[in-house]
C-alpha cells in the first residue's frame, strides 16, 4: 500500500492548499473537510467518509472532497465507489491531476490496464512533474508488454529522484519484473 498512502498524503496537502482558506473562521464546509482530512490521516477512514459526506452535502461542487473520499474508499477496498468519486472530481475540475492519477491507480489495482494507462497519461499531460504518474504508467506499460515505453517512464522516475526502494516496492506489489512479468491477474508475460 506504499503507493496508495503516498497518493493520499499528496491529496491531503493539495486539498488543504486549495480548499481551506482560513484557519480562524472556518465555514461549516471547511470544518467538515478539515475534520475528514484529520480522520483520514489517522487511518479512521469510515469517520473520514462521514465527514466528507457532510462537507459534500453543504457544497456538492468541492472536487477535493470527492478526490479524498475516493482515496478513503479505495483504501477500504471499495474500488467502484472510489472510481465514482474520482470521476465526479474530474467532472468538477477537469484539470485535477491527482484525481486522474488516483483513479488510474484504482484501475491498475483492478487490472484494467488500458483505462489506467489513459488516466496516467492524462495526469502527465496536466502535470508534467507528477513523478508517481510516471511510475504508475511505467508499471502499466510493463503489464501491457510495452517494455521500451515503460523503460522511458522508469528512467524519468529515476531522473526525477524517486527513491529506488520505493520504485521497487511498487514494481513488487504488482509482480512486475523489467524482463517479464507475472501479475496478480494471473497472466504471464515473458
Topology:
Layout: H1 2-19, H2 28-41, H3 45-58, H4 63-75, H5 79-92, H6 97-109, H7 113-126, H8 131-143, H9 147-159, H10 164-173, E1 176-177, E2 180-182, E3 188-189
Antiparallel strand pairs: 1-2, 2-3
Give an account of the 3D structure:
The chain has 190 residues and is mainly alpha-helical. The chain has one domain: Serine Threonine Protein Phosphatase 5, Tetratricopeptide repeat (Alpha Horseshoe), CATH 1.25.40. Helix content is 72%, strand content 4%. It is built from ten helices and three strands; from the N terminus they run H-H-H-H-H-H-H-H-H-H-E-E-E. Strands 1-2-3 form a three-stranded antiparallel beta sheet. Helix 3 packs antiparallel against helix 4. The longest helix is centred in the N-terminal third of the chain and has 18 residues. The protein is elongated. The two termini are 26 Å apart. The N terminus is likely disordered.
Structure, briefly:
The chain has ten helices and three strands.
Portion of residues in beta strands equals: under 5%
Give the helix/strand class.
Answer: mainly alpha
Work out the count of structural domains: 1
CATH topology: Serine Threonine Protein Phosphatase 5, Tetratricopeptide repeat
Largest sheet: 3 strands, antiparallel
> Helicity, in percent?
over 70%
Name the overall outline.
Answer: elongated
Cross-sheet strand order for the largest sheet: 1-2-3
The radius of gyration over CA amounts to: 17 Å
**Assigned CATH class:** Mainly Alpha
